[in-house]
Amino acid sequence: MTSQMRAEIGEQPDALRRTIDALLPRTPDIGALARETRQVLFIARGSSDNAAVYGRYLVEAHAGRLATLAAPSIATAYRRRLDLSGVLAVAISQSGKTEEIVETLDWARDCGARTVAVTNGAGSPLAEAAEVALVTRAGAEIAVPATKTYTTQLAALSVLGLGLGAAVAEDDLRRVPDEVARMIALTEDSPALPEIVEDLAKVPGTVVSGRGIAFGTALELALKIKEACYLHAMGLSYADLLHGPIAVVDAQTPALLVAADSGPTLPGTVALARRVRGAGAHAFGVGGGPELAEACSAALPGPALPEWVAPLGLIVPGQIMVENLARRLGIDPDVPRGLNKVTQTD
C-alpha cells in the first residue's frame, strides 16, 4: 500500500512548478526590500530551519550578503531588543501558525528589520505579519514528515536569492520540476535503493554529511531518518565531521554523503567517502555524480542541476530512501510517534 508520504513525494514536480510560476513575479517586491537592507536574518525551526541553511549559503555565495540564522529565544524568552536596522528578516514556517516564529518576526520588525515570510499557509498569521509573503503552492500536506512543503520552501528561497541579486540563471530554477520528476523515476529504479535500505535497517544509526549549499540537505535527511525511522542520525558538515566525530563511523555506523554533481565541495565529499571506506565502514552517496558513486559502497543518483539549485532535487532520493526504510522497519512513515504537523514551542 502506498503511504501518504510517498504520494506527496510524487506530487513535488507539480507543487514546484506552481510555486515557481507564482513566486518568480515577486522578485521586484524582494528587490525593493533589498535596496533598504544589507544582510539577511533567517527565522525558522525544524525542516524550515534546514531550508534556511540552504538560504544562507545561497545568499552569501551568490548574492554577496551576510546571512545568519536567528535564535528565536532571544526574542521570545530573553526578550532582548536588538538593532536590526538594515536587516531583512525572513521567517519560514510550513503552516505559518507556529507562534514562536510569528512572534519572532514581529519582534524583528519592531527592532527595525524589513520582513518576508515563506509559508504554505495563505492567510496565515505569519503571512499576514510580513511585508512580503512568499506563499508556496504545495497544497495540503497530510503526512507529518515534510516533503513537498520543504522543497517548495527551497524554491521560494531560490526566488528570494534572485530578488536579492544572486548572480545565477533564472532558467536553472525553471528546470527544477522536470528534473525532480526524473529523479523520482531514477531513484525508484535504482538498484542501490534496496541495497542501502537493507544496510541501514541493520544498524542503530548513521552519520549524514554534506558541505556548503548541500549542507542543509544533509541536515534535512538526518532529520527525516530520525523522525520517520527512529534511528540515530547525526547531520554534520564534513568539515566538522573530520574534527573528531568521524571516530563514530564504523561497521555499525555507515555514512550517508550528500553532494551536488559539481561545485567546490564535491572533491572533499569524494575524499571523505574514500576515508570512510578505508576505515572499514560503508559510505552511501546521494548525488555527487560518477565521482562520488565510484568512491562509495553504493549511491543514489543526484539531479542534473547547477549547484545553486541542486538541493531542490538532491533531497528527493533521500526522501524516497527514508520512506522505504520506514516501511522496511515496520513503521508508518505518515504518523511518526510523538509528532504533530504543527509544532508549537515556547
UniProtKB/TrEMBL annotation:
The keyword Nucleotide-binding does not apply. GO terms for biological process: carbohydrate derivative metabolic process. One of its GO terms (molecular function) is glutamine-fructose-6-phosphate transaminase (isomerizing) activity. Residues 29-170, 196-336 form the SIS domain. Its EC number is 2.6.1.16. Keywords: Aminotransferase, Repeat, Transferase. SUPFAM superfamilies: SIS domain. It comes from the Bacteria. PROSITE patterns: SIS (PS51464). InterPro entries: GlmS/AgaS_SIS, GlmS/FrlB_SIS, SIS_dom, SIS_dom_sf. It is an enzyme of class 2 (transferase). This is Glucosamine--fructose-6-phosphate aminotransferase (Isomerizing). It comes from Actinomadura coerulea.
